[in-house]
Amino acid sequence: MSRRAPRVVVVGGGVAGLVIARDLARAGLNVEVLEGSRHLGGVVGPLTVQRDPTAQAAGRGRFRTVTVDAGAESFATRSVAVADLLEELHLTSRVVPPSPVGAWVAHDAGAAPLPRSGVLGIPTDLEEIERVAGRAAVRRARLDRYLPRRIGTGRAGTSVSLGHLVRARLGQEVLDRLVAPVAGGVHSTDPMLLDVDAVAPGLRRAVAEHGSLMAAAAALRAAAPAGAAVAGIRGGMHNLVTALADEVVGHGGVIRPGARVDAIERVAGTRRSPWRLTLADGATLGAAHVVVATDLPAAGALLTPLLPGVTIPQPSGGAGVSLVTLVLEHPDLNDAPRGTGVLVAPGAGPALGIRAKALTHASAKWDWVRDALPRDHHVVRLSFGRLGEADAPTASNDALISTAIHDVGVLLGVPVAPEQVVGSAVVRFPAGLPYAGVGHADRVRAVRAAAHEQPGLHVAGAWIAGTGLAAVVADARAVATALAEQLKNGTGHLAD
Asked: Which GO MF term does the entry hold, naming one (predicted)?
């Protein structure tokens, strides 16, 4: 394809935007990425934690800096989308599984290891339920195998929440103590709000086929690739962003950080550049194709004027997410007392006296993090903020760090003194994280159909593809493939 092929402008330099730009640049297209912030990758990026000056002055801590992930730290292995991309980027040799010790769940009655064989916390046997939720929950969950297959799955053509399905078949205790913590950790919201078909594709169909929810979860788990359900990259997932950006530029594409797009409009009578983008500095840019691959708030602002009559999914309106990373000098954590981390059941915080919704013991989860630290040093990351909680985004960094120090001791069952913290950092995602609410699939279809009616307009990103790198990458590559095919077949306004 000629380098005179029309300009494609990708709005948003997150993973979705970079994947699309990379694939199109490799296909010989003239691609430009406009990223509003100064940083690429969206929720995937590096975080360098430095030794605290106070700790250094007191002779505590034996490290200078450690670089970990600021946001997403792994990808789901349920599909080959990310694995295939990493192979093309020559990163396969750096893919690593997490530690097999597993994670825990904390609820108002205590803490216990999470089942490892289920789907989004849905257990596959009664022993797993008893260990976490008790015998009463087991008695209720036994009904699952005897209930009519239609119970909880809804009518054909309707949307059902993950929480509704679990509660109807396994009971409230299983929902509260097993599924809600996992759903909250992965999707930052209540499972009663999550569209089961979006977050666990095929689960409803498997219930009808196998006759129970636990059997359905077991079948989906068995059909997934062998090994851990997630994997990471040695050195951090942010290496994916670096590799994508390098390939975009290496194949002739342009990336412009700090170039925020305020408006997109269609210009009548211009075949080669029918789209005009207005940047925050007042500059304008013409394009034959525009890919909106921003986060949800920005996508809504840009697309709403272009797609009249279509409801763009709105942000949750709940709290943003704040991540507090601590470096601890604490030998009592060497044996990973709560495995790779702890998820907190919704509503358990007041009973436990904590505010965090999840904790990742990163140096126990990833060998590469442990190897980057001196002996007796650990990296833990605590997540604050879920739907309905509004204090985490407004708390000061010092207040969040102080809360995190307290919460890590409770969640890991090992007291932590402030002087054992030898480094800290706070990362905020004020817009929160997108989630697939009930009816998400219908809303996505409506948006895609409306965009299709606007030649040269395309949409991508987690808000439309679904949560997680596997979903985002698969969708982005599909968008890139379809656009490249349009141009190849002469339907995409090739150069005059």
From this structure: oxidoreductase activity
Tokens of 413: 């069952």
User: What pLDDT digit, counting tens, does each position of 240-276 carry?
Assistant: 999 999 999 999 999 999 999 999 999 876 667 899 9
H-run or E-run covering 370:
helix 367-371
pTM reported for the whole predicted model: 0.89
Residue-wise pLDDT tens digits, 21-36? 999 999 999 999 999 9
Structure tokens at 246: 């390098």
In a domain, 356, yes or no: yes
Same domain, 445 and 299: yes
Range(s) of the domain holding residue 38: 7-42+236-315+435-488
Phi and psi, residue 235, nearest 5°: 100, -15
Spatial CB neighbours of 220, under 8 Å, sequence gap ≥ 6: 119, 200, 202, 203, 206
Q: Could you give the residue ranges of the DSSP H alpha helices within 281-366?
A: 296-303, 349-352, 362-365
CA atoms within 13 A of residue 214's CA, in its CB half-sphere: 23
CB 339 within 8 Å of CB 359: no
Same domain assignment for residues 348 and 395: yes
**Tokens found for residue 399:** 């207040």
